[in-house]
Amino acid sequence: MSRTKVVPIPVMGRHNINAYLLLGRRPVIVDAGTPGSGRRIHDQVAAHGVDPTDVSLIIVTHGHIDHFGSAAELHRLTGAPIAGHVADLGPFRTGRVREPYLSTGSMGHLMAKNKDLHMQVEPFEPDVLVTGETDLEDFGIAARIMPTPGHTAGSISVLTDQGDLVAGDLIANSFFGLVRGRPANPPFHDDPLLNLASLHKMLDLNPARLHVGHGTPLAPGRVRRWASREHQRLSRLQAAGRIRTRAADGKA
Fold it and tell me: Average of pLDDT values for 141-170?
């Protein structure tokens, strides 16, 4: 199968919120941005010389509004089926995120006050229900969907055969993508320890680079050094009983 190319699709700012276009035998879109951004994503896909109606699949990495907010709209514009993980069906089906948001730091505390993050968006029913590692050859790209729970219960990433990891919010650039190339937590995690375990699992697969939902691509070596420090930080918090996680019923 031909090499899969990863093309960023800016949704907000130059790098603050990203969707991605994966180009192989057929194109695949990863993430659907904020509410009302479906047309913008559609038009950027077209600007890259791709007929949006040729898109074979829309993959939603998790159940947060800035990633699934325009999934239903993008489905109508392209006709492509939507893939999402079974563990995030609640947000997808209701159009509402699980609340409260569990902040990872001061940025999260500030962003949690933004009313736009608490709105109800157009819901959708995934056409492709992800329950585990899923090969994407039938959709025209040399890649696999990889479950990476922790940010949300149903968070997923996409790993191409060339080693590009499209990581959603598994990790981010610092300050919601404003500090390029510097690894950091995104503003929220439902389970920081589980998310870090998922990150280590992906790093063990030796990705060539990590393409994130917020910011520019990250170098694996730099992410590994950050993850080591983050492990130490979380271990201290865990020993002090200061890690807050979301229970299986969706409540904090």
Answer: 98
Report the C-alpha gap between 89 and 124 in whole angstroms. Answer: 9
Alpha carbons 230 and 67: distance in angstroms, whole number: 25
Tell me the angle at which helices 38-47 and 71-78 cross, rounded to the nearest 10 degrees.
Answer: 40
- What's at 38, amino acid-wise? G
Residue 72 contacts residue 60 (beta carbons within 8 Å): no
Q: Which two structure tokens, joined as six digits, stand for 216?
A: 């520019």
The DSSP letter of residue 49 is: T
Close Cβ partners of 235 (under 8 Å, ≥ 6 residues apart): none
- For 40-46, what is the mean pLDDT? 98
Confidence tier at 78 by pLDDT (50, 70, 90): very high
- Is the confidence at residue 216, as pLDDT, over 70? yes
Write the CB contacts of 196 (distance below 8 Å, at least 6 apart in sequence). 150, 227, 230, 231, 234
Do residues 3 and 139 lie in contact, with contact meaning Cβ atoms separated by under 8 Å?
no
- Cross-strand bridge partners of residue 10: 18
Pairing type for strands 179-184 and 209-211 reads unpaired
**Structure tokens of 223?**
């992410």
pLDDT for the residue 116: 87
126 cis-preceded (ω within 30 degrees of 0): no
Predicted local distance difference test score (pLDDT) of residue 3:
87
Strand segments, DSSP code E, in the chain are 5-12, 17-23, 27-30, 57-59, 82-85, 128-130, 134-135, 143-147, 156-160, 164-166, 172-173, 179-184, 209-211
